[in-house]
Amino acid sequence: MSQVGVHKVLVSACLLGQPVRYDGQSKGIISDWLNALGAEGRTLAFCPEVAGGLPTPRPPAERQGERVVTASGLDVTTEFDRGAELALQLCQAQGIRFALLKEGSPSCGSGRIYDGRFEGTSMAGEGKTTALLRRHGIRVFSEDQLPELASALALAAATSA
Q1: Are the beta carbons of 51 and 79 closer than 8 angstroms?
Q2: Crossing angle of helices 146-160/32-39, nearest 10°?
Q3: Which residue from 20, 76, 125, 138 could staple onto 133, CB 3.0 to 4.6 Å apart?
Q4: Cβ-contact 45, 13 below 8 angstroms
Q5: Whole-angstrom Cα distance, residue 70 to residue 57?
Q6: 117 CB-contact burial (10 Å; exposed 0-12 / middle 13-18 / buried 19+)
């Protein structure tokens, strides 16, 4: 468990510059605040898709209801569910109550995901990992919500001090 008032954040590994996305790329975000958090040892990089057993690179996948499939129709739901479960186990073991996950991803999307037709159209929804973490009380933010995450961490630190 982290020190009183100091909360760790589970972060999509691709947002921290690791080339783990389906296309073998990263989506590293440049943020002095996030870099400082990492320098304090308060970020924990994690890719649910890789942890769930999928390779990098891999075919793009999208949610279709509770299933996750590739454009060719391969069902990869088991790997996505396994990655989500491993993310939850990690958060529980480390006492992590906050996550910063990649918007749009079938694992990590927190407000929008692709609509399952592989046409580049997004819709309101959440990824498998986000849904599981939220069901267990972990607050999930996207890379577009850094100020909201910073505020939530500050409030949590103030109330636990």
Answers
A1: no
A2: 40
A3: 138
A4: yes
A5: 13
A6: exposed
DSSP of 69-135, one letter per residue? EETT--B-HHHHHHHHHHHHHHHHHHT--EEEE-TB-TTT-SSEEE-SSSSS-EEE---HHHHHHHH
pLDDT digits (tens, 9 = 90+) for 47-67: 999 999 999 999 999 999 999
Structure tokens at 143: 């890379």
With residue 39 as reference, give the H or E element that holds it.
helix 32-39
Angle between helices 77-94 and 128-135 in degrees, nearest 10: 40
Let me know: does 123 contact 104? Beta carbons within 8 Å. Answer: no
14 CB-near residues (< 8 Å, 6+ apart): 20, 21, 25, 26, 27, 28, 47, 102
pLDDT band at 1 (very low <50, low <70, confident <90, very high): very low
Radius of gyration of the CA atoms of the chain, in A: 15
